[in-house]
Design goal:
With 508 residues, this protein is mainly beta. It contains three helices and 36 strands. The strands form seven sheets. Strands 1, 2, 3, 4, 5, 6, 7, 15, 16, 17, 18, 19 and 20 form a 13-stranded mixed beta sheet that branches. A hairpin with a 4-residue loop joins strand 18 and strand 19. Helix 1 packs antiparallel against helix 2. It is rod-shaped. The N and C termini lie far apart (160 Å).
Length: 508
């Protein structure tokens, strides 16, 4: 029984008088229904493009119908239908480039189509690339091909199985259930490929064989015809039957085990044609071998003249990251280069850095975190937070602090003063200049850190001041020349001989 459905899947007409009906399904291929009816003004009006047909709990689209008047005067309507997955031809992507599990890729492909995912038995990561406009039906067929799975359509639910059918099923034997057989041997490709078209009696549909002798698409069966010398194990890859009377059916079978012919066939189907993309690889006479990442973030080109590895922006624009031109001896890199050893003549980076064959380096600037060893450093200026060496020689040394040691006995000099320290880090002598007082000179400090005296100059004079005792001693004599004034209200004592001869002493 065939039922015509509207767009809401509501029954509009039930066809019980039809003929020349057959359902044809191929593994990972077409899934069609054909039937003919005589014109019936009550029911035939519902046979229209866009309507649906329900048969054996499966939905088909009406995609073609043809009306013919027979010699008897009756009008015959021949109808062709496609399983509703045919609708996926009307959903498309400008490009479909994804990597993931088959389940993930099916989700991407079927999003927004109204179709759901059933059972997915494969989980290995795969990549599917359509760089141009592709419809969803073609995409899911590609997913099945790349993953090595087989599609199962159930109305609007799509499953991806490792294999359809059973490994061991019934026998097709002449004299039992095999009505006719065609052995098709094809050598046009240079290799011999063999297939069989077999007409069989479906014994399972007869009451006495109910539950036995059942087979379906994908089953591996034994085909036996002693007279023709055929005794082989083959797989059903196409199944044709009548939904009205499932007795006489037809199957196409082929070798289920890959042989040399199958290998060559797969190579022919998966090899890259000239200038055609296959899994990101294109081979052509202009560019050679081109390998492009699915998201257009990287691409490589190989040919006899050059080799390029390029970085992309995801929209199809690329710039070289690595470029080899052996003819002109040019090799260009961008990014980070890591190597255990570089051996070569010279290095030149722009106009700012170069190393010649003798090891002489020229650089605009450099930063070093480790040790620099050199016999001679010759230059205008040396800057650093710490400079250590046995001897420093130069015309000018400029800096904030110059010292002979970091601590202990030492001399220090900065922009304010010149200081001497003892071994206990005590400041003992200071030579400096007091800008505010307009004076400059020495300050002498005792071991207790207190000032003991100063010798300094001021405008028009020179002062020697002792904070405590001032002791002057000259073993060869002390000469005071010029006018001497003893003032301050204290007592001037002379011990020993005082000779004022030849002196002009005032106040005596």
């Amino acid at each position: 029984m065939i039922t015509i459905l509207n767009s809401q899947y509501k029954p509009e007409a039930v066809l019980d008088r039809y003929f020349d009906d057959e359902v044809i399904e191929k593994i990972n291929g077409s899934y069609t229904l054909r039937f003919s009816v005589y014109l019936d003004h009550d029911k035939s009006k519902y046979i229209q493009i866009g309507k649906y047909v329900a048969v054996e709990d499966q939905y088909f689209n009406i995609v073609h119908h043809r009306r013919t008047r027979a010699e008897s005067g009756e009008v015959i309507i021949a109808v062709e239908c496609e399983q509703v997955a045919y609708d996926l031809r009307y959903h498309s992507y400008d490009q479909f480039i994804h990597t993931g599990t088959p389940s993930t890729l099916l989700q991407y492909a079927l999003s927004g189509t109204g179709f759901t995912i059933g059972t997915v038995e494969l989980s290995d990561m795969i990549s599917v690339e359509f760089k141009e406009l592709a419809n969803v039906r073609g995409i899911i067929m590609k997913i099945a091909e790349v993953s090595g799975g087989e599609l199962l359509f159930d109305k609007y639910k799509i499953s991806l199985l490792q294999r359809r059918g059973r490994e061991h099923s019934v026998q097709f034997r002449f004299g039992k259930n095999l009505l006719g057989i065609v052995k098709d041997v094809d050598g046009k490709t240079g290799e011999i490929a063999t297939a069989y078209e077999v007409n069989v009696v479906e014994l399972n549909s007869l009451p006495e064989f109910a539950g036995f002798e059942y087979f379906e698409l994908g089953d591996t069966v034994d085909i036996i015809d002693e007279e023709l010398g055929i005794n082989e194990k083959q797989r059903i890859i196409q199944y044709t039957y009548s939904p009205f009377l499932r007795i006489n059916s037809s199957v196409v079978i082929a070798n289920a085990i890959y042989g040399i012919q199958d290998t060559i066939y797969r190579l022919q189907k998966t090899s890259v044609a000239k200038d055609k993309w296959m899994y990101g690889v294109k081979i052509g006479p202009d560019e050679g071998i081109v390998i492009e990442r699915y998201d257009k973030l990287a691409r490589s080109k190989w040919n006899a003249d050059e080799f390029r590895m390029q970085k992309g922006d995801g929209s199809g624009s690329y710039e070289d990251a690595l470029y080899f031109d052996p003819i002109n001896g040019e090799y260009e890199f961008t990014g980070i280069v890591t190597a255990s050893k570089f051996v070569g003549g010279s290095i030149e980076i722009g106009n700012n850095f170069s190393v010649d064959e003798s090891g002489h380096m020229v650089a605009v600037g450099a930063e070093f975190s480790g040790e620099i060893s050199a016999s001679v450093i010759n230059g205008g200026r040396i800057y650093g937070s710490y400079i250590e060496g046995a001897e420093i020689e130069g015309g000018i040394v400029t800096g904030a602090l110059i010292r002979t040691a970091a601590n202990g006995r030492r001399i220090e000099m900065d922009d304010y003063s010149f200081r001497s320290f003892d071994s206990a880090n005590r400041e003992r002598v200071t030579l400096g200049y007091n800008t505010g007082a307009g004076m400059g000179g020495f300050v002498y400090w005792g071991p207790n850190g207190q000032s003991e005296g100063q010798v300094y100059s001021i405008s028009g004079g020179m002062h020697v001041i002792a904070d405590n005792e001032l002791f002057l001693r000259g073993y060869g004599g002390i000469l005071v020349q010029g006018d001497a004034l003893f003032d301050g209200g204290g007592t001037v004592k002379f011990n020993g001989t005082v000779d004022f001869s030849g002196a002009n002493v005032i106040g005596l």
